Predict the 3D structure of the following.
Amino acid sequence: MAESTGDDVPSASTSSSEPDDLEKKIIRQIEFYFGDRNLSRDKFLQNKIKENEDGWVELSVLLTFSRLKALSTDCSLIAGALRKSTSGLLEVSEDGLKVKRKSSDPVPTLSLLSPEDRKDMSNRTLYMKGFPKDSTLDDIQDFLLPFGETEMIRMKKDLDKQFKGSIFVEYKLVDSISKVLEKKAELKYKDELLTVETKQDYFKRKDAERKEKKAQSRVESSSGSATETSKDTNGTTFIRQEGAILHFTGCGDGTTRETLKEYFRQFATVAWVDFQKGDTEGYIRFDEDGGAKKAYDGAMANVPTGEVCKICDSDVTLKVLEGEEESAYWEKMKEDQANRKANKGDTD
């Protein structure tokens, strides 16, 4: 996301110099906050904008956000940096204490993405693996910037919230994807050759690995393995895994199984979505141990404290099933399978 500009007509003192490295990071971070992708789902910031009829937000409010606070807590420095931006997204108040999106670029509202929108986003997204696990978001942003402006970077993390060394990066333009792919055979980060795939190729590969894993598990089960297998409500063989069930509630009329699958598969491999259109709640089963926790952490990564996840313009509450609740879910699936067999006379 591009960063904000200063006043409509910058003074000579604010336009006479290029932003230094720190100022560029400040610009990039604040423009991310106010950019379409983040602002359309950030209820906290949306509410702050609505509190002032002109849409101004105090810089002191933004300084409660950890990433900006880590860069600087000096309002005059932050205001000066924003006035050097060339994106035209934001304006800074005359006293340098407030910022807002320009009236010509109104605050976006979250709506259900069309299939064309989703395809466009997917076409502008890459998967990359091979970054050192101590890499920071700023390090990775600086590395990716020569290929073009990024819309969103998601650093994949393990159950302990430690960076795994892989990311999804959504660029603003498809041309940036082409530039990266042209270099992928030799693309290195700190002398480490990176794995680079389109988002589509990444999910195709993961789906193939999942099918191979299931096939292997069935072989092991038939040869006496202790792995517990059964069939879900669709008749598909499944493997019981720990920490793989995510419960969700609060869905609106626009939510479908496909939109849920598309949303959560960016965080972990989805095995099955237990949901019917018109329901307000359901379950997602992931195809790996701990998959529900990975999906929960991914979905909540950019959600302000105290808020809930936004899916298809609905406030959705997420919960990872554990203990008795998790066991009860698996038992219900086994019971449903037994009932189907009884009803059909299935002795399989």
Notes: The first strand starts at residue 57 and ends at 58.
